[in-house]
Amino acid sequence: QVQLVESGGGLVQAGGSLRLSCAASGSSASINSMGWYRQAPGSQRDFVAQIAIVGTTNYADSVKGRFTITRDNAKNTVYLQMNSLKPEDTAVYYCNVISKNYMNYWGKGTLVTVSS
């Protein structure tokens, strides 16, 4: 089992920045990829960004050039640096981890609100 705890959400004005963190504990040695999803009110949960254990990254088109995902394998932590935030980035952001045996784990989410 892997437990995930997100932090760093909050209220920010459009054009501002926030940095989300997600710390993994438990069977963290089994972690393969780490990533972020988001869910706006009334919408489905959408992919935001992912980083593999070797550092390869993948981003949703809507955040490319504005968001940067990084990870610290020694701390079992993944970060999402969000710059040039837009009101449409408002959502609950969920940390996601995929283990080496392809199990999916989710955090409880952290709310990001971008005011116009």
Structure description:
This protein is 0% helix and 59% strand. With 116 residues, it is mainly β. The strands form 2 sheets. Strands 2, 4, 5, 6, 9, 10 and 11 form a 7-stranded mixed sheet that branches. Strands 1-3-8-7 form a 4-stranded antiparallel sheet, with no helix packed on it.
In summary, what is this structure?
This protein is mainly β. The chain is built from no helices and 11 strands. Strands 2, 4, 5, 6, 9, 10 and 11 form a 7-stranded mixed sheet that branches.
Please specify the SSE layout and strand pairing.
Layout: E1 2-7, E2 10-13, E3 18-26, E4 31-39, E5 45-51, E6 57-59, E7 67-72, E8 77-82, E9 91-99, E10 104-106, E11 110-115
Parallel strand pairs: 2-11
Antiparallel strand pairs: 1-3, 3-8, 4-5, 4-9, 5-6, 7-8, 9-10, 9-11
Termini gap: 40 Å
Oligomerization: single chain
**How does the major sheet shape up?**
7 strands, mixed
Radius of gyration: 13 Å
Q: Average pLDDT across residues?
A: 95
Indicate the low-confidence ranges by residue numbers: none
Summary tags:
single chain, mainly beta, 116 residues, four-stranded antiparallel beta sheet, 11 strands, seven-stranded mixed beta sheet
